[in-house]
Amino acid sequence: MPNGSFEADVLAGLAQPQKQIPAKYLYDEEGSRLFEEITGLEEYYPTRTELALLRSAAPEIARYISPRATLVEFGSGASVKTRLILDAAPQTEVYVPIDISEDALAAAAAAINADYPDLIVAPLHEDFTEALELPPEAQGRPRTGFFPGSTIGNFDAEEAVAFLNSARRLLHSGAQFVVGADLVKPEDVLVAAYDDAKGVTAAFNKNLLTRINRELGGDFDLDAFAHRAVWNPEASRMEMHLVSLRDQTARVAGHAFRFAADETIHTENSHKFTPDGFTALAERAGWRTLRLWQSPEPAFAVFMLAAN
Ligand code: AVJ
Q: What is the whole-number distance in angstroms between the Cα of residue 187 and the centre of ligand 1?
């Protein structure tokens, strides 16, 4: 199968009764660019809220980081938030960014190297949910994990526990883990954040169909689908869907898929937590909450976890 898991995952997902495509496929080059644009939107509060929270909490976070430590970042992207931690915790001697995007990883490593000449940067080019071993530079040092952005909210509970468990095994007992998680808040604030007035989030969602058309020989009619963002209170999550505006058939890699009018493809979940709910999730994976910092409304939290 020439396109590997993208093709397999799309064909399998579109064959489900509730059509769905894993959210990670939203992030091709154009999708990553659109997400960056989303982070600057008025309605999309998480990025700026977490940055402000990390900036004010950084001196306190730094006190939990041991001398000679290794900082391990899961899904490092451009490593912007990392700088707040590194500036406040100069006792950090090694930085291990983990990212599946080779270009983003190399660029971030080079930029951090240039600005922190005494820091040893040891990038790990891997899916951050699958990393089993840290590079030799990290060996024999106390470890602190860093997972900002509420990316944990993209996982369902089972996946989140599995990830938190594998992160704990990677970091070892005695480690700390700094995790950013978006909190439950009024529905109108959430829906606006995922359905902005400029339509950037709509473009981000619909870009998935453009990507399927280009990479998998698809024939989706972009004008026959619309972006929909809904709050699911039972599951405590925002959901993104692509709604079919009429009865239609779309072809992908030689396979035909029927859509009824109003039928959707579910493309993303963003779980929103309560402090107690997040702590309970972390406990299922062998972590305990040492401390949490919470922003004023719109509420966002940064958790300091410790491995049992
Ligand atoms: C990057 C996964 C944290 O869920 O808020 C932004 C992605 N989706 N707008 C999020 C996203 C729609 C974002 N994460």
A: 16
Ligand 1 site residues (CB inside 6 A) read 38, 46, 149-151, 153-154, 194, 201, 268, 270
pTM of the predicted protein model: 0.94
Mutate to test the pocket of ligand 1, among 34, 35, 48 (most ligand atoms within 8 A of CB): 35
- The crossing angle, in degrees rounded to 10, of helices 29-39 and 46-62 is 80
CB 304, CB 60: distance < 8 Å: no
Nearest alpha carbon to residue 64 among 276, 303, 282, 300? 303
H or E stretch covering 240: strand 237-244
Query: Mind listing the pLDDT tens digit of every residue in the chain (308 residues)?
Result: 444 599 999 999 999 999 999 999 999 999 999 999 999 999 999 999 999 999 999 999 999 999 999 999 999 777 789 999 999 999 999 999 999 888 889 999 999 999 999 999 999 999 999 989 999 999 999 999 999 999 999 999 999 999 999 999 999 989 999 999 999 999 999 999 999 999 999 999 999 999 999 999 999 999 999 999 999 999 999 999 999 999 999 999 999 999 999 999 999 999 999 999 999 999 999 999 999 999 999 999 999 999 98
Neighbours of 192 (CB within 10 A): 18
